[in-house]
């Protein structure tokens, strides 16, 4: 059913449902929350992920600023344009992640260098407003906006000719906004990369990640419909079957190229992969997208790789510098060959690219 496995075992770590304070539509409110995570660190260098949540009124573009306290410097960034002057760092949205409604989040990442120490920045501002995790209203009555999981989106709402993305949340997994936001950031980075490589790219739906409240708990997805003790494909296979049934999607389906991620897996047993029309990934990929399982480059490269299968490409036979080999771990320092570009454009979903 799927041709390539990505195996990096990790336990799912999920947060609890939370609520944030916002103001009514008549208010002019500003507020933000920032999560800064050092995802990996080595002598002289590090990788970091930054998640930004807009707690105030909707914005159409954002500028995040902070200052490093120990001489760190940004050397490479993705999902934002990052510049630095002395200790002061400025990150500006790119074209696809500038609009943030109330309660919406986006994320970006970067690699940097350090000497001596690498402390986390102590303060951030978003469009000039201090990010304290609260909202500063000028008028209006506060209301509560819970970040609870939405109901599954009917299949008729997804635009044909797009890459359609799902996050399936088992019944015993708490909703965590980092997951849909992080998965959206990963597929948007893949969207940017395909544009860079091919001169054209795929479209995403307005609801980039459809959150699906699963019908079963994690253990059911791990252990049901398995052959003996082989649980390797059970999780993604059970997710795949549930998504196809509930949303009336075929395998493959000419309307969409589908991506499914589920927050469940058995340690060292559950993986994922892809074939033309479908990408199916389990818990370690969902965790990685959420920024809690290693450097983001690996998850960006992994999505580019699996979407390559979704567009019809096979694995490369050697580590050849293309994302269809182990070279995807070197992302973004990897490139499609001309033959791979031609095959994508001529493949079963080449018409999705524009």
UniProtKB/TrEMBL annotation:
Residues 25-134 form the CBM2 domain. PROSITE patterns: CBM2, PROKAR_LIPOPROTEIN. Keywords: Signal. GO terms for molecular function: hydrolase activity, hydrolyzing O-glycosyl compounds; polysaccharide binding. The keyword RNA-binding does not apply. GO terms for biological process: carbohydrate metabolic process. Residues 1-27 form the signal peptide. Residues 135-156 are annotated as: Disordered. InterPro entries: CBD2, CBM2/CBM3_carb-bd_dom_sf, CBM2_carb-bd_dom_sf. It comes from the Bacteria. This is CBM2 domain-containing protein.
């Amino acid at each position: 059913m799927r041709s390539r496995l990505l195996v990096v075992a990790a336990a799912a770590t999920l947060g609890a449902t939370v609520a944030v304070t916002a103001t009514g539509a008549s208010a002019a409110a500003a507020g933000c929350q920032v999560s800064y995570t050092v995802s990996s660190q080595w002598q002289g260098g590090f990788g970091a992920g930054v998640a930004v949540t807009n707690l105030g009124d909707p914005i159409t573009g954002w500028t995040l600023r902070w200052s490093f306290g120990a001489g760190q410097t940004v050397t490479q960034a993705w999902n934002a344009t990052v510049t630095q002057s002395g200790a002061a760092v400025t990150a500006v949205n790119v074209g696809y992640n500038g609009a943030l409604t109330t309660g919406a989040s986006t994320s970006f990442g970067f690699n940097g260098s350090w000497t001596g120490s690498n402390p986390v920045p102590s303060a951030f501002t978003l469009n000039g407003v201090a990010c304290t995790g609260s909202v500063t209203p000028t008028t209006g009555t506060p209301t509560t906006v819970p970040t609870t999981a939405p109901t599954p989106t009917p299949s008729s709402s997804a635009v044909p000719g797009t890459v359609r993305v799902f996050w399936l949340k088992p019944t015993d997994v708490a909703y965590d906004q980092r997951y849909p936001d992080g998965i959206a950031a990963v597929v948007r980075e893949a969207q940017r990369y395909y544009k860079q490589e091919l001169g054209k790219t795929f479209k995403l739906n307005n609801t980039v990640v459809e959150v699906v409240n699963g019908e079963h708990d994690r253990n059911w997805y791990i252990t049901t419909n398995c052959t003996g003790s082989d649980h390797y494909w059970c999780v993604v296979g059970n997710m795949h079957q549930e998504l196809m049934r509930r949303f009336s999607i075929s395998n493959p389906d000419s309307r969409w190229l589908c991506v499914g991620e589920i927050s469940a897996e058995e340690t060292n047993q559950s993986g994922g992969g892809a074939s033309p029309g479908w990408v199916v990934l389990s818990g370690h990929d969902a965790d990685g997208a959420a920024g809690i399982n290693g450097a983001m480059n690996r998850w960006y490269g992994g999505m580019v790789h699996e979407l390559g299968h979704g567009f019809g490409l096979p694995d490369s036979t050697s580590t050849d510098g293309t994302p269809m080999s182990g070279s995807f771990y070197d992302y973004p320092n990897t490139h499609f060959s001309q033959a791979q570009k031609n095959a994508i454009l001529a493949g079963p979903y080449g018409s999705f690219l524009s």
